Fold these 2 entries.
Entry 1:
Amino acid sequence: MSKVPEMFGSMVFNDKKMQERLPKSTYSALKKTIQNGEPLDLSVANVVANAMKDWAVEMGCTHYTHWFQPMTGVTAEKHDSFICPDGDQVIMEFSGKELIKGEPDASSFPSGGIRATFEARGYTTWDPTSPAFIRDTTLYIPTAFCSYTGEVLDKKTPLLRSMERLSSEAVKVLHVLGKKNVTRVTTTVGPEQEYFLIDKEMYDRRPDLIYTGRTLFGAKAPKGQELDDHYFGSIKTRVAAYMKELDEELWKLGVLAKTKHNEVAPSQHELAPIFSTANIATDHNELCMEIMRKVAERHGLVCLLHEKPFAGVNGSGKHNNWSITTNTGENLLDPGKHPEDNMQFQLFLAAIVKAVDEYQDLLRITVASAGNDHRLGANEAPPAIISMYLGDDLGALVESIIDGREYRSHAKAKMETGVDVLPDFRKDTSDRNRTSPFAFTGNKFEFRALGSSLNIACPNYMLNTMVAEELSRFYEVLKDVPDTDAAVKDLIKKTLTAHQRIIFNGDNYTDAWIEEAARRGLCNYQSLPEAFAHYTDRKNIDLFVRNGIVSEAEMRARYDIELEHYAKLLKIEAMTMLDMAKKNIVPAVMSFMKELAETISLKRGVSDSLSVYAEESLLQRLSDRMEAFVKKTAALEEAVVQADQCDDLPACAMYFRETVFERMEELRTVADEMESETDAAVWPYPSYGEILFGV
Ligand code: ADP
Ligand code: MG
């Protein structure tokens, strides 16, 4: 397959294939489900299942799997073959029931204690809005995952619910504004994905990368990212070959892989797709991360998706571009030529401003992870403080609304001189601030605080839900007023005035902003345990329960799952460090010290006049550091033992953050100092220089 259009979607049971392979009535029934969320009949499902199976078998498939996104943070699948006994032979079969519902044993997936152990059953249900696809001779069916008693056990169900919710609330508001022809609104998302690519041989020699996805030790290389020569630099041959194959694999799966380039740190890269509906974008991003890893293996490389694989150079994030579009094709976040007259745009903008202000804690929580703790607030990615950037034009418009002044945009001013050639609201004036965690970028918002490995379902269902909530409140205000125009204007002004503290157009990396944000009363949570302490605040539980996204019990379960997961991850990191310290680093430095000591006595045996200054001073320094290292190893070990005694989840997570993590950092510092003075031939691990500049 050489031509891209032929290759694109060849492994997907997409609309074209459905149209070709399904009877007209089945096709239109399925389309109604996909487009309008109408329930699907079993008889329709039977026909669809059979057509899917025929296609999959023709493509060489032997198995199918329900593919789902449990709370583990990675996707899950259980494969069943299509075989069905027929006398002493088998035939290939796949029923509508098997398509619609699966029953994987759910007992080992995290549920936060929702599911009693005797009730292990969990169900996967087909999500017809995301197309089935083929990988490795298996038909993959995107599904949602819940327990026997209906509790949500995955990330996709809340996303689907939140999309419905946002749609119905947005439609009601649009109807008030006179847009009666709109019947549905869709959330669109384009996630830009960062990653590191390193040589497999280097990876295999680093237990820290193998067990934790990040380096726990490692002295800085003489060169890092200070020359900015990697960002958008020309792509190395081996990386280019990887990227080419990655694109092709993604295209076959119908993923709209569009942009690829080198990122800021050495060995760091980015891939961005063209946006699609939030649901498909989520599935595709999960798929993308898996394919990135798989393709790397074939090139003798390893793709690292950890948020901070290497200290001292940038970590990896994900930019979640988010917007809302009507079924009539209108992007509700497009300000148009004259945002000052565009009440509909202003109203939706006001809803988002209010949502981000009132639920800034939730936005912070949704991007919290052990890995992302290394980035947020650590002076690289956006800070831990959530604020919004609107850009010069829109910022000025909002100010003029609040102050009740007439708005004069840059574009307008030019127009009066007769030289305006700008076709639309100027996008470039809104994209200059790369430090903002939540930036308006022309016709969408870009949420930039996500970590690279995060499942984007979570930030998107938070966003959808909080915006749906504000829209439903707007609707209550507007639905019965005699003069809609006046009421809308008044509501916009009141809302923007009340929530203007969340708007910040300056540099988010400065200390001045941290102080200013504190004055404004904005949240600044430095770590996952600190952020999650607010997850089950009353207003947050109310938000999700009122909008029917997840129940209070489910939220409490999620809270437990996250804190437990965090503590487990930090424990694995600490244990890995201890292992590396005791089994490799200590013996390596000791053998080097022995060599130095032997050299000193050998030299002394030859002649008293030979200088042993170099050996002695080095030996002295290493000896001192080794003493500190061994003591700090013991201190870390002690902290891990202490942590095991803690049975209160939040306290345990906080202990890991405040004590275990601190001791890990201290241990690392000493190791890195020793690394920079020890013979490279005896140091047990490849250096940062070798790893970061090795491909
Ligand atoms: P850049 O950030 O480099 O200027 P773009 O703004 O064109 O690039 O797009 C960045 C990402 O935003 C892409 O993944 C793109 O598909 C996505 N995007 C563009 N428009 C929308 C939209 N309406 N909704 C969601 N994502 C969008
Ligand atoms: Mg971008």
Entry 2:
Amino acid sequence: MATKIGKVYLVGAGPGDPGLLTLKGQRCLALADVVLYDGLVNPLLLRHTRAEAIRTCREAGPHGKRLNQAEINQRLVDEAMQGRCVVRLKGGDPFIFGRGSEEAAALAEQGIPFEVVPGITAATAAAAYAGISLTHRDHASAVALITGHEDPTKPETALDYAELARFPGTLVFYMGMHRLPHIVQALRDQGKSAETPVGVISHGSQPMQRTVTGTLATIVQCVEAAQLHPPSLIIVGDCVTQRESIDWFERLPLFGQRIGITRPEGQADSVVDQVLALGGAPVLIPTMQIRSLRDWSAVDAELDRLAGTDWLVFTSVNGVDAFLGRLWERGGDARQLANVRIACIGGATSQRLAQFHLHADLVPETFRAEALAEALAPHVQNKRVLWARANRGRDVLPEVLTQAGANYAEVVVYEHVDVDALPPEIDQWIVTGQLDWVGLSSPAIARHFAKQLSPAAQACLGESTQLAVISPVTEAAAIEVGLPVAAVATTHTWPGILTAIRDAMATDSDRT
Ligand code: SAH
């Protein structure tokens, strides 16, 4: 039987901020068997793919070479011919200086079904994130998107700089950084005023965004002095002057900070979003994985004893998911908990309980095992207390509860497994000062992180890379393995870690 032909989606990935992907683009990524993405695409977007999807970066073709356009077209055709759903993920919008239309034409020629999903192009995104409105009632009634790739001094250029100099609006040059002096000169030669405002934005919408403004007379020196790097856009026009009052992105509290997130794989999404919302760059450094149990018999036995259990204790979101998930899977539901009281450590864990429509009966004021044990102790004499726990962790609860006269029991409901090695670039980023913070959210994570670092990277901690920890207990564990701690969260959650980082930065800038 002939294989059914697949489908190709040419999807705009937006300019870098992973939040600037369309919902349709996200749905396509979730469907994809194969994703072929460009070097400018933020790899965080790959979070939206299925685990089994094949993801190939265009820059990493065979023998480490960048795939050329013909090879890409061929690959799209071949994959679709084999019945696969293919997402071709391109920076910004696929049809704006993206050669997306050539890919579409190649697919059309071979009779392969395809759709184009537009993206937010660099011009609108970088301008918005730099506080520049490309059109403005008083300053600009039109916008031109122009390639800066062509040499304006060559006769074969398709661009007429005399027309561009007269254009009644904002000029936006893509791919023009290396030709900035030529572009500026050509506009001035054609009579554009030396006082015309110019803005150059590099890495627009990303935590590394930098914006330099000047005029046609000054911008070349300003950009040289600032050492801006591609990808950059050049914006020419009066609208650039609006920036001072409405520049917002570069003022976000964690703007420009690269923050290492050590949460287990698959559990970092909410922290990634929080870091992005504060203007920071999330860097994923999973130090362990969460694994489901292979053998549920011990948990099943506990589920069968729920009628005789007085208190159920949860100290993690994973614990809630695993225990209550198993209850549901076996055909049970919340009624089995009718006579059980629930204690949880707080914050995220009680929020997860709420998703199961359960209120915790007891949540300590501070989210620490000691506080939970202390709050629970007065209620447990001669009561059966069951802790749904991970395969490892601290043993405060059993000690305190047993002493308080509880009939204490525990059951492992999920496992933590160490990952074998940190992502290879992390060590190097620490040594070269490219990682600003690493958040450590448990003693086990702190110990594992220390073990995986090279001595050179360890020696750089506390200098350009600072550590923020979730609690005093994690701080103690970090110090014990030689890690210097710069900030300790007062609320013992990941948002608490981010607040501690902001506070530490504010204190630092007060000092300087
Ligand atoms: N299809 C893309 C453009 C591809 S051409 C889009 O619609 O945005 C590549 C050029 O886009 C770069 O040379 C640079 O000029 C611009 N560019 C892409 N991403 C950018 C970013 N985050 N900030 C500034 N310029 C960017």
